[in-house]
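Subject: Interface between my chains keeps coming out wrong

I've been trying for a while to get a sensible model of this assembly. When I model each chain on its own everything looks fine, but I need the whole thing in one frame so I can look at the contacts. Pasting all components below, labels as-is. Any help appreciated, I'm running out of ideas.
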Amino acid sequence: MRKFWTLYSKEMLESLRSYRLVWIPVVFIILGIMQPLTTYYLPDILKASGDMPPGMLEGYEMPGAAAVMAQALGQYGTIGMLVLALAAMNSLAGERSSGSAELLMVKPIAPAVIIFAKWAAHLTVLFIALGLGAAAAGYYTVQLMGSLSVSDCLAAAGLYSLWLLSAVSLTLLFSAFMRGPAAAFLALLSAAGMSLLYSLLPSDFDWLPAALPDLSAGQLTEGSVAWFGPVLSAVLLILACIAGASMLMGRNKLPD
Amino acid sequence: MDKVNWGLIWPLVALQALLAIIGLFSLAKAEQVRGPKWLWVLILLFGNLLGSIAYFTIGRKES
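Reply #2:
Try treating it as a single job with all components included. I did that and got this:
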């Protein structure tokens, strides 16, 4: 356990030195407040951007607070996930190619502990980023649109964080045996593949982690959702990723 | 909606500026980046959010 904390604080120091701990939360806050702002000022933005046929704005109806909050969280599924995967891609691949993985592996530390410390560090960055981002989005939505239920927002952000964490864990797994950019690409591709399966056949694949963004939106707009299947499969996927990465790390494949 | 509420808009501007400043700071301290440094200065200054994201994800070399 002490080894874990030592490695974990080393990882957190690393994410501070690489500015990850700062720039990812700032990006998440910007994404979070941009959505309510652009939704609220959309008519003005359209007017300012020039030739609008008269009467076009008459049909524009301001969406409700819950819908805007759901859209704001939806931003994290695209740019947010890309940012997290790109930031996590070198965590194992970089250490393998720079040689610090070998230095670490000769110490009497189980590979699982190394992987788990790295994963926990990424989890911390994700929680800080999503927590601050969702709080900022919620504040702006309440200021501009109307009231929101705090518990629904927390549940929705929690469901969304699980989906993002699945993508980060996949990146970590692929990064254990591939070069960084390839790992991020493959992780995003598998996340996109799951989303595609879910959107094509929602009734067959509603247990996939890819259903989590929809659940998160449903939590906000409807108030209660059947979360058990996707949450279970996401947790299993994340555990499988950590276990797989530990095994691959234990075999210590040399960098290419 | 006639009056724009600047109290809600300036944090957005300030955060974007903060991101660009952190980027420039890290660029100044970095020994090596992918591509020429002056290009990243331009991207950070004029690239807004996506420019800063591009610098932190693609431009920085982690060593």
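Reply #3:
Confirming on my end. The CA atoms of residues 43 and 51 of chain B lie 5 Å apart.
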